[in-house]
Predict the 3D structure of the following.
Amino acid sequence: MGRRTIVVDGNIWQVYPAGRLTVYGKDESSLVFELGTGPERKRRFTRYSPRGSQSTDAALTELTERQLLDLFRQSQPAWTSPEGTYGAL
């Protein structure tokens, strides 16, 4: 699984594919933004439509830093997202 990192407001977030499949198949991908580890970690999720490769790992690699920051700003906290199972442990 491909991983990237971005810096948002001085914090280093890990970015990787969420692995959730949607009804749109390869036309839509999900990303996880994760800060920290353990019970104190913060997770955010977003969906986007890859422009180039349809492979989730390759599509993540093709995103620019600016695009990742834009996707982060559009992301939602895990407890409000189906990818985060609405806060379930």
In short: Residues 26 and 54 are 6 Å apart (CA to CA). The beta strands are 4-8, 11-17, 29-35, 42-48, 76-77. The longest strand covers residues 11-17.
